[in-house]
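ZP: hey, is the S-adenosylmethionine complex queued? I don't see it on the tracker
AM: it wasn't, my bad. submitting now with these inputs:
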Amino acid sequence: MNYRHAFHAGNFADCMKHALLVWLLESLARKPAPFFVLDTHAGTGHYDLDAVPASRTQEAQAGILRLLAADPEPLAPYLALVRRLGLYPGSPSLTEALLRPGDTLACCELHPEDSAELKHLFARNPAVAVHRRDGWEALRGLLPPKQKRGLILIDPPYERPDEFSSMAKGLALGHSRFRTGVFAAWYPIKRLAQVRQFLTEMRDSGIRDVVTAEFLLREPLDPARLNGCGLLVVNPPYQFEDHARDILTALLAAIGTGEPGQCVSVTRLADE
Ligand SMILES: C[S@@+](CC[C@H](N)C(=O)[O-])C[C@H]1O[C@@H](n2cnc3c(N)ncnc32)[C@H](O)[C@@H]1O
């Protein structure tokens, strides 16, 4: 396990994923019944952007720091949480901040140091469980939740060449265990062929009600670069497509560099 999220915290991909995550969580919280969140690849929960890993890569400069300065209205709920939580918040901290009484969060993180840090962060919150456990396996072991409503964030590091295939298998497994759950699966866009293959596999999987939201900083011609990213959402809440389009358009206006091919798209992959 070489990937450490601390080097990438607050980059454009985090902004994209976390702004949509906050919208999804707020939409779950619109109904009073409690919900469950599973974060299969959780990281450490917060990141000091002035410390060595983040300051070495400077990725946050072109991401959250530029976005905070621009402060676009469609991203206001996410940016308010970032300001309130202090250190750059990862997905577990953003989620914890939006839990209500009765809601619970389970985080899986396999890296020994990162999972220990996450455990320490939430040690005093009984609504949050941290497992040093394989997130793929947790899709079988921790689903379905007792609350019957919930969100599953799947955000692996894509270190291994087969991780797109693990994602397709993981979504099929998770969905078979919890058909009404909202699944949010993040993926990198380095080269298009890989992404197209994954989306074809998802289209052929028979899973209904699937939308993809994609954010491209440039045409994906150089496969060595993170040219963009996407979030595939199964069972998106009402009006997700419109809001995702607004959020990503505002994000691109704030942090896009004007390179050829930059764009956002929100596409329905499978009908309800
Ligand atoms: C992209 S980072 C997660 C970032 C986090 N979701 C966020 O948005 O703040 C991926 C994390 O998955 C962890 N990881 C890798 N393989 C794993 C596995 N099989 N199960 C659980 N965690 C894993 C890595 O150590 C890394 O911290």
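AM: back. The chain has a mean pLDDT of 96.
ZP: great, adding it to the tracker
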